[in-house]
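This week, look over our next protein:
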Amino acid sequence: MKSFQVLDRNQKIHRNYFLEASAGTGKTFSIENIVVRLLVEKEELDFEKILVVTFTRAATRDLKVRIRANIENALAYLQGQETPPDYLQSIIEKGLLEVTHARKRLERALFCFDQAQIFTIHSFCARMLNEYVFEGGLRLDAISMDDPLPRTKMLAIVRDFFRTGINPKEYSEEEINLVLADFYGDLEKLENTLLDTICKGIDIEEVPPLSKQLDDFNAEMLALKKEYGMTSEAILQDFYLLAPLYRGLRDKKRQLKKEVIDKVTRFANLFDLEVWKEEEYNTLVADQLFLSTAFAPENMGSRSASQNIGKINIPNLSSVIRKHLSRFVSPTIIFARLACDCQKLFRKYLEKEEKFGFDEILKAMKDALANRDFLQNVQSKYKAAIVDEFQDTDPMQWEIFQQLFLGSGYLYLVGDPKQSIYAFRQADIYTYLSASKLLGEENLASLDTNYRSHPSLIHALNTLFATSNSPRLMPLPHLNQDMPYPEVKSPPNAVERGFSDGRGSVHFYIAEEASAATYPLEKMEQDHFFPFMVQEIQRLSKEDGIPLNQFTVLVSDRFQGKRVAAFLNRANIPTLLQRSGSLAESSALAAFRELLQAVFSPRNLSSLKTALGGKVIRWTHEQVRELEDSSKLEKILYQFHRLKRALYSEGIASFYQQMMHTCWHEDGCTVVEFLLSQEDSAEFYSDFQQIAEILFEFENSIRSTPEALLAFLDDFKTLFLNDDNRTKRLTDLTKNAVNIMTLHASKGLEFDVVFTLGLVKRSKAPEQLVPLLRNDHRCLVAVPDKGMTEYQKHCLEVDAEKIRQLYVGMTRAKVRLYTPVMIVPKSKNVSLGCASPMELFLARLGHPPIEQKDLYSRIHGYNGEPLREFIDKLPKETSITYTLLNTTPSIISSGEEEDQADLQEPNNVEIPGAEKYMHSFTSLSSVHAHKPSTISEAPHDFYAERKTPHTLPSGSETGNLLHKCLESIPLSIFKNVKQPSELQEIVRPYVIGNKYKEWNLVICEILFNAVYTSLEDGLRIVDIDPKQCFHETEFLYGSEIEKAPGYIKGFVDLIFEHRGKYYILDWKSNWLGPQYESYKKENLKNAMQEHNYFLQAQLYTEALQRYLRLVDPRPFKEIFGGVFYLYLRGLHPNFGNEFGVYHPRKCS
């Protein structure tokens, strides 16, 4: 495979490429330079004609930052500030005209960078379906990536299935009990597992219904009677002969247990029948082939005694029964039937309600591509498409890319099959390989220089992964082939970093439990692995100056991560868990709720005492009892009334600020001082702060009332179930601490020193719902017997992915890699698909080639000798070493012991400056945004007979609805509308199912008037270019207001550019009177003053001015058109801007 050198002027760019990028070889660097070259080279493309697709939102954000930075760097190179890369040097050599032209193209790309076509695959498909909605065959705004179907709603559908989809004709009570028993009786766990299964984006194969199962059961029973001569008498005779040989069948008196005899008798009696009805079938299901389980080989006692039992009627009775009847008592089969039926119900709901999940978006996109107009529209929109992380693609995604871009423009597929580790998300390595084959050898290229790791580490990894040392390391079971490991090289003039300890760049730390019969991972972590890691982190940090945030421990799951963090913290090593839990599980959530409850009802002594004794104020029981003294109670009530006044008049930000600076203890400490002085409060205080910020954002985003804050906290668990980002505990990424993350989360990251602890963890047996091809269609198939060929092949695929996980983990390090090894030679045989990645790797390393299915024979009894011999024979320059950890547990140390000096209380230190808080218009305004209107006649009757814009009920709900419509409905739709009634179908989704349903036409009228009313000089919103409109623009900037130090945060309803000027527009749904004349300029000005909207305009203007400094060099006064306040109820095209439009040209 030829090498791809993106900086080389001779590297042809304008063609299809399939780029294989091994770990650390500069994949993103290549993408960002491909974009710049497409912009400036001879077949130059407009920026918006270049599509970049990746697979996570985080990767999308990273690509946007990297691509923008590279465009800015390219501009600097062309201005002669630094030595340019070769392809830009070629432009410079062509002269000033070419340089000027290239600079203009790059400047234009930066100017319109907000329109960059950089998306996740699902966002891209959703955008195309919405943009070409008619050609795609969907209703308007059918698909929204901003409003996905919440998990709680999906769970409700699953629960509806249990209520309505399960009836005696489809499922017997015994079948449901059997599946439920497989989940230990936990119905909620069963419901969640069903939901996870149906949301995997893959069809579940049909399982025969109960009636067909009954027919098959009859056929198998007849076959057993005919083929094996099974009768009740023969079975019982064999049972009494064999029972003494097996464990668990007798009681303490050596008598057969009554329940054992009953189950065997019931089973035997089935063979006295000729026809078996549902009752007999359910008997089999309820007793679970007890006889087969009882006589399983692993339950046999003394094998020598079996020679004296005499003649038996049915040889191999246990295996015969299992072969013919196991599928009828398999919880996997019944679960698959439940999942299949539930998936059908789920899809019916989505179709009926016109809802789209991630998988439905892809299917809708695939179906839309069958329309030639849709296909051509999307193809004409883009001239180049770059697909990042292509190894994470599934078959449907590749089908979409292939149909759109293969043969239309340039297609760049960038990925690494060795890092394909997301099979649980349906990523398919074989899709990657088939795409590679389709593009052809002439379009294949590789990135073969590792810029991440130091040369010695690269050499060590090349040695470990080389085919000569680890033959057949990366198998492809489906193809019965192996994936070669392409050796990577170091860049020229790479600098090597040495350590003072003499250990290699790859260092194995080996622990052994010679006598353990199990696999004691947690014990060996505590006794050996964790102490060694503490020792190395402390030593390298002290002796070699490596910052703690350049150490990373890769774990298998969050439970292992918590164990590592707890151990390192006990050694005074700070840690940073990348996935550190949810605020929904934090005690700070309950504490905040208790506090608000007390503020709302300070006279409620129960709420008051709960808040005072909670984790914020922390009064003792004795202090709470002192409230019986009325004088003390009055002082506390006064404090709470002050807080209540702050909350209602100034908002949650002011309330929080005052709360944290109140004093509740005799020592005079404020709340913030008191919390920070408590040993157990660091995490609590951080969570409490974050919850306050979330409430601040919530309050301002929907103009909520203070009482709504309490309801919001009550909904926190629901938000958590719906994977709402607000519920996730933030981590301080600037903290100098050891990083702890999962192997999957580490993909794409790099650190100086990495411990791959997660590689030694064994896994549970793979699921028995396995993805298989059925008539070229991929679906989940229930495999009831783990001995079946399909299951064995699936286990081989699981093990193959584990080796790819090992590759990902071992390529995260830049300087040194620490790899653990567990030696447990006497542990029980590990089942296929359950071995740890490290066990699978060591079964290859230093051994001759072997079939993948035979690796487990090497894993059992592995004593570590092959690894030690392999390393001992290597030349020193290979830089691979090992340590044999002590057989006795290590003692944790928090560092070198020092003489203890007498501690003296330090002097008080005062740090100058004020604390900085987050502020908004609401918190800064002297009049709260929710102050009731001074006009008492404001309408509130949803059942009013006369429905007009002036009788539409007033309130925040109405305002939120109108804002949502104006934000969400594209301007392009309004351009084709001649009267309000034509908008009813567009507005219907926003009012269906709520109390605004009967007000549909009125809302249409308000929206129509808003976009068709002249603002000034004939300017109407409908005439503005939609591409120059920016809805709900968020801003954050440093406050220069003396009384409000900190930051100003908020959202602008609409910013638009028209004829070279920028405007701010804010929608107001305020009710000022029963007729249009009520919205004349004088009344608007009074309303602006009453609600302090002039301050709001000032804040918005400042935000826009700060932004425009970055993108437009012209003076602000020259390009700013002013602020429009549109009072929606007062607008009408016939009146122009006479009513409802307020436009203060200067806000100061």
User: Anything to note?
Assistant: Residues 584-707 form a domain with the PCRA; domain 4 fold (CATH 1.10.486.10).
